[in-house]
Amino acid sequence: MAVLAVEGLRKSYRDLVAVDGLGFAVREGETYGLLGPNGAGKSTAISMIVGILAPDAGSVSAPPKARVGYVPQEVAVYPDLTARENLRFFSGMYGMRRAEAKSRTTEVLRLVGLSDRADEAVAKYSGGMQRRLNIAVGLLNRPSLLVLDEPTAGVDPQSRNAILDSVQRMTGEGLAVLYTTHYMEEAQRLCDRVGIIDHGRLLAEGTPAELGEPDLEAAFLRLTGRELRD
Amino acid sequence: MLRILLKDLRRRSRDSMLLVFGVVLPLGMAFVFGVTLSGSGSQQLGRYGVAGPSAAEFTQRTGLPDLKPVADAAQARRLAETNELDAVFVVSPAGIEVVGSVDAPLAVQMAREVAESYALPGGRNVQVVQDATLGTRQLDTRTYHAAGAAMFFAFFAVMLSVTGLFEERRNGTLARLLSMPVPRASILTAKLLVGVIVGLAGMALLVAATTLLLGVRWGPPAGVAALIVAGVLAATGLMTALASFARTPEQAANWQSTAAAVLGLLGGSFFPVAPELSVFTPHHWFLEGLAELRGGASILPALAVLLAVAALSFPVAAVRVRRMVAP
Fold it and tell me: What residue intervals traverse the membrane (chain B) (predicted)?
């Protein structure tokens, strides 16, 4: 059963068509990788899926906002607050009451391995720790759909491995994950299916094995070209 | 909305810049202008005269050079009216009347400070008369400088808060909030309220501090509170409306700093300057309201102007800022 269904999604900014008739679906317990070069339209598509942007055309069938976890590309937390304060605040934004927010904060801190440093200002965290906290915010509301926009960009191998492990663990529990990344080995390891997009259009879709020839990166370069992007 | 508001207030309470701009600097300025300057009787920035039975003693004790002897209070008024002198000190054992020209507010302000400095040891009464309509509705030097500095820096304090929306957009937290089940109007309202609350808290702290530390006499609390609320609303509305036309937080901060400084100086936050222009600033009406309050007159005109500025600027700010969170 599809947790997320996107059909004919379109968004343009003046003359630039960022997303052009995009369509795909993510099923329960599935990790779907949305791959594309810079400027392909991934982030615009995600912004429409999580309700930040209104599409010009097309439809998004997704769980209500209270059941969607969104992890943006940048570390979107308050650096002058502690990790615990950040999580308590965002819990409140999901409508959790004080006691629930407190226990859920403790749970996700443990899940991302930040319990010991929970009361330090986020500004003092390493890049990897900040990324883990960024993911923790997306998990607060026990989402049925988790949208991760390049969650491992710029982190060290240990943190990346920890992030990928936790995503794999969650999909095992029935969570649907929409995942964008530039790292093909990540997509190969995590994703049940991938969609490759460029210029806002879906160019190909299938399992990594179906698309990979001999590997996913070769397929990606064949479909999107080898010229450099801005 | 309350949660966003509390989060922002918590963040602002840890912002050392806000403490500096909202409390430390205005308190320092009020101290410098109100205490140090009022004691510097040797400075002369205008054409002054002296009259009255204690004129000789006054001339000797203040050491002011080029004090023109004037026959009596009537001649003093004539010379001030015709602008031949900027101010005349009419000195008697009971007190000092500073008869000033309406065209020389800065020189009259300096004359008032000299008079207060001279009157202080004997506890004599100081009165300033610039024209018939003003009468005695004037603030003493300390109150004037404390109130002027408080209003001047209130514009900076609310500025630090309203740029928060730009900051949230830049660091991605605005997008994250928009992806959550939070009404967009709540985010905007919280941001505007933060500015108002920070401004009010800063002003309240300054009123308390200047009263206790500098002996400033603000006036009846209810009237002062009404003027402070109206002044802060006007400041937040204006600063937010201005910031809403900027594209980046840096641009917003530059525009706001310039506007806050120009409005403050024109409005006579430190010295009365350009009276014909100062009426276009909230600072002028805030100080005017306090002076009216001190003289027992109605503060409604001053309140009406300040609230009108807020009523005109807030809708502009709301419409413009709403675009930042539009889907």
Answer: 16-37, 144-166, 187-216, 222-246, 258-275, 295-319
